[in-house]
Design a protein that fits this description.
By secondary structure, this protein is mainly alpha-helical. It contains 4 helices and no strands. The chain is elongated.
Length: 126
């Protein structure tokens, strides 16, 4: 049986991919199909990295969990600021920059925090 952490990790990854799939399908314009699909692929890259990490190295569930959770929080905030409560006409630029922020900043920070949790939970041998 899978551990609760691995199930939560998978659900967070699935939620992130689902959010970007929903965003693509709800805003799809055939004129910009290549751009929209490319943006979605870049946007789900952090989740794919976390999924691969958890599949290749199952002991790094906390690392994967931290990275995916950080990316999902930023993506959720971006979605809210663009589609639910836009504050300016340039709010949609967040959709372009959030994937880069996730890949290069927030996912690595979440992974480092997850690694710290993982290390703190490891049994210490004297």
């Amino acid at each position: 049986m899978k551990s609760p952490l691995s199930i939560a990790n998978f659900l967070i990854i699935l939620s992130g991919i689902g959010l970007h799939t929903y965003t693509l399908l709800s805003t799809f314009n055939p004129e910009y199909a290549y751009f929209s699909i490319g943006l979605m692929l870049v946007s789900i890259l952090p989740y794919c990295i976390c999924l691969l990490l958890s599949l290749i190295k199952p002991a790094f569930y906390w690392v994967s969990f931290g990275g995916a959770l950080a990316a999902l929080v930023i993506d959720g905030l971006t979605y809210h600021s663009v589609f639910i409560s836009p504050q300016s006409s340039t709010a949609a630029l967040g959709l372009l920059f959030a994937p880069l922020w996730n890949i290069f900043l927030f996912m690595p920070i979440g992974m480092v925090l997850g690694y710290g949790i993982e290390r703190s939970r490891a049994p210490r041998h004297l």
